[in-house]
Structure prediction request, 356 residues.
Amino acid sequence: MGHAHELKKPVKNQKRVTISRIAELAGVSKATASLVLNGRSDEYRVAEETRERVLAIAREQHYQPSIHARALSSGRSYTLGLVIPDLMNFGFAYTARELETLCREAGLQLLIACTDDNSAQEQMVVDALIQRQVDGLLVASSALSDQLYQKINQSLPVVQLDRHIGESTLPMVISDACQATAQVTQMLARHSPDEIYYFGGQLKLSPSRHRLAGYELGLKRAGITPPDHWIQHKDFQPRSGYDMMAELCNQLGRPPKALFTGSFTLLEGVLRYLQQHQLMEANIYLGSFDDHDLLDCLPLRIDSIAQDCPALAFHAFSLIQQLIAEQTPAQNAQVLAPRIRWRNPASIRLLNEDRS
Prediction:
């Protein structure tokens, strides 16, 4: 009998199967095996029988090409860097997932880094991605200037994703937040023309500015000039939505008649406040930028704006691939229309009346 505490021998790591080993087993030169395994057998007229023998042995040996060798021969790392504020944000998480799928299908690796909308942290994660020799950067930046990215863009492509840095001329793919927000705000004005509040994030960020511009445009189209106290800003965290709602309800002595929130995260805070204070059945008209299927399950019927995250990912991926290949894109800046999800029965009725 063996001892209960007998030490097991450590398992040796199996050595990686090399092209030389495949060539030896197939009875061909290393050069021939390399041509076959790199898909160049037709170009150099390698016999079909030889090609099939090399590929069969490669399958038997579970051969995997070295990404390092591939990178050395091509001058590429086959990785992309994605810089976003927060993976807890549904829109960024959805877009990141779509980008990861596109990269995987193209044989690329996506490296994701989060900034928490902190400029020092953004600089740090961008530097780390560059040190890992990514082939390009997709960035949702919180910067006020594109100076850093213009410098980076001299050596590797940078594409702005979902956010536009000031007046930057760097390639970008963003949503047309202004027009969609204007439409939802116009509808809120039809429900409650005398009281339509707005909760937004940091005005230094382009999404905040674009969504606020849409709110103001919607009220202008409705013939309404908002007093200053209707518009409130903090950041895009759920806690800020909660705090702004608590403060507003305390001031009014009741929930507002109509409210537009500049993000789903702000709406989350608003809803948490309403739920905790038994106000989910209150007579309030809500609209929000960003969307989630959970909104279909609430007693409050909230009209929301759904960004086309798959389209954002697809166009950003296509754009950076063209830039990496040193091709001139047909469009350097793409602005995608989001979709409005009308849920409030009163909104749907008004829309049907407009169409008839």
